[in-house]
Amino acid sequence: MNTTIKKVLIAVAGIAFLFFAILIFHIITAKPAVYESPNLQVSRIDFKSTIDSAQAKQICADLRSIKGLTSDSIIIKRNVVVYFHNNKITNSEKVYNELMSKRPYEAERFILPANMVNKEVCPVDQNSFAYKASKTINQFFN
Question: How far apart are CA 127 and CA 75, in angstroms?
Fold first, then answer.
């Protein structure tokens, strides 16, 4: 009985060591994420009237036809349309003008107020211990 328990413990320890070695190998050889589109920008259009589901589909179709927009990233909530576009191909002013030329929408392009232009938008407290620890670990492995 005693030798059977020893064999089981050695087998469990061996498997645990093997999994740990695989984990370490994966951490060392994993590459950081590479984003194909580093020029992605988010923009917004505010609509003055309530957007129903039919209008939402129409707005999405009109936006998808504009060159430079990513078709899968159009969000419509509370009379606001948020969309992502490649800022090397187009900008928010061109998108707004092209959208307004398609149909007579009652909307205006959202322009960031001057007092918020240089404000940081990261919701993470950069002075917290958790942020500093994760940044250190990330830098170590990259």
Answer: 32
Tell me the percentage of the chain whose pLDDT exceeds 90. 24
- Give the number of other CB atoms < 10 A from CB of residue 105: 19
Give one word for 74, left, alpha or beta, with left for phi > 0 and alpha for psi -120 to 50.
Answer: beta
pLDDT of residue 78: 82
Length of the chain, in residues: 142
Q: CA–CA distance from 116 to each of 24, 39, 113 (Å)?
A: 43, 21, 6
What ranges make up the beta strands (E) of 80-126? 80-86, 107-109
Backbone dihedral region of 91: left (phi > 0), alpha (psi from -120 to 50 degrees) or beta?
Answer: beta
> Is the pTM here over 0.70, yes or no?
no
pLDDT for 35 equals 60
